[in-house]
TrEMBL record:
Protein name, UniProt field: Uncharacterized protein
Keywords: Signal
Signal peptide, first to last residue: 1-24
UniProt superkingdom: Bacteria
């Protein structure tokens, strides 16, 4: 029986990233529509249309301006940029929930959306 060598996950990821392999299958931020897969384009279109529909229905009162701006920046990047759209108000959270459901219903993973609230130093 041959001995088995298992690389730690962090080392494997570092090796793959160093070789230019993207684990998510995404293209680089700012890539043109032609360079992105049809699925990447479709997910972003679903996200953009859902944001427009939700904002038209709910309005923007009590929505954090930076939450809307960061979602728009995410869309402008082709839904590839590492944007942090942190929902802060109850209405932000309601919009984030609606967007997550819309994209998941279209087949995207819940991690597709840019909803992150990183701790600021």
């Amino acid at each position: 029986m041959r001995p088995t060598f298992v690389l730690p996950a962090a080392l494997m990821i570092a090796i793959l990233m160093g070789c230019g392999v993207s684990l998510a299958g995404e293209t680089e931020p700012g890539a043109s529509t032609e360079a992105r897969s049809a699925w990447q384009v479709e997910k972003c279109e679903v996200f953009a249309k859902a944001l427009d529909r939700i904002l038209a229905r709910m309005g923007t009162d009590d929505v954090s301006p930076d939450f809307i701006d960061n979602n728009r920046a995410y869309i402008a990047s082709g839904c590839l940029a590492p944007v942090d759209a942190c929902p802060k108000t109850p209405k932000d959270i309601e919009i984030a929930n609606g967007l997550t459901i819309a994209t998941m219903n279209a087949g995207a993973a819940s991690t597709f959306s840019p909803f992150r609230c990183r701790q600021q130093n």
